[in-house]
Amino acid sequence: MDIQALKVFQVVAKMGSISGAARELNYAQSNITTKIQQLETHLQATLFYRHNRGITITPKGKLLVTYAEKIFQLIDETNRVMKDDQTPKGPLIIGSMETTAAVRLPVLLSKYSHDYPKVDLMLKTGPTDQHLYEVLHYEVDGAFVSGPISHPDIAQKTVFEEEMVLITDMNHPPLSSIADIQNRTLLVFRSGCSYRAKLENMLHQEGVAPSKIMEFGTLDAIIGCVAAGLGISMLPYSVVAQQIQDGTLRQHQISTSYRKVETLFIYRKDKYLSTPLTKFLELLE
């Protein structure tokens, strides 16, 4: 199989068009078309339907996308294994929830960067669902996510335990029960955030319906809008401890069954543990 043709196919599938792939790869469209035709001839399979609006990937094409991802990941891993002389160096991509990155990781990442200056450390923030997908698809080396996680391809270790609290503005009266927040606006991260899912699940179990849900992209925005009285949220105490102590936020305890949340570090079981990742795991011990 022509690896270059497979790479062209992968980019066409990702971009959804011949012209998009041509721009991405800086190839002539005719060269892209030729590579796809050569690959289809070799595999004796139609990978894309052609029509007036462009192309649509076929079921066989979708299957090849999965295998292509594995092939290129294995090629990349082979190169890394062969070049790994047990000296921590090269890229290390770590995913993290924004709350964890803001409070738990600064000291850890600083120490790692100081101890291993030749490692090109990159941090990507986002919700748990996003990072689980990225780990499974080899897009990050590992990630800090909210537990529990159950997947046969995932290795995990517990690194932190968070205490969750409901937060409101200072003018909000103390809560005698969760029903007291009936018809309030929830201020949350986008779908895929595990803390949002836990809050929504808790309210559902208690029969409480929020009047509105407002999504935010940053932690600072949620904290600022809660303090301004726009709505309520649920976050780890470690994230909002300073604001609570400063008197800009009021905390409210929640039931024990929802209070404790584990933060896990996850990575693929079948992934080669590069020296940079091995040293990072050692730092988490």
UniProtKB/TrEMBL annotation:
<keyword id="KW-0238">DNA-binding</keyword>
<dbReference type="InterPro" id="IPR036388">
    <property type="entry name" value="WH-like_DNA-bd_sf"/>
</dbReference>
<dbReference type="GO" id="GO:0000976">
    <property type="term" value="F:transcription cis-regulatory region binding"/>
</dbReference>
<feature type="domain" description="HTH lysR-type">
    <location>
        <begin position="1"/>
        <end position="58"/>
    </location>
</feature>
<keyword id="KW-0804">Transcription</keyword>
<dbReference type="Pfam" id="PF00126">
    <property type="entry name" value="HTH_1"/>
</dbReference>
<protein>
    <submittedName>
        <fullName>LysR family transcriptional regulator</fullName>
    </submittedName>
</protein>
<dbReference type="GO" id="GO:0003700">
    <property type="term" value="F:DNA-binding transcription factor activity"/>
</dbReference>
<dbReference type="Pfam" id="PF03466">
    <property type="entry name" value="LysR_substrate"/>
</dbReference>
<keyword id="KW-0805">Transcription regulation</keyword>
<comment type="similarity">
    <text>Belongs to the LysR transcriptional regulatory family.</text>
</comment>
<dbReference type="InterPro" id="IPR036390">
    <property type="entry name" value="WH_DNA-bd_sf"/>
</dbReference>
<dbReference type="InterPro" id="IPR005119">
    <property type="entry name" value="LysR_subst-bd"/>
</dbReference>
<dbReference type="InterPro" id="IPR000847">
    <property type="entry name" value="LysR_HTH_N"/>
</dbReference>
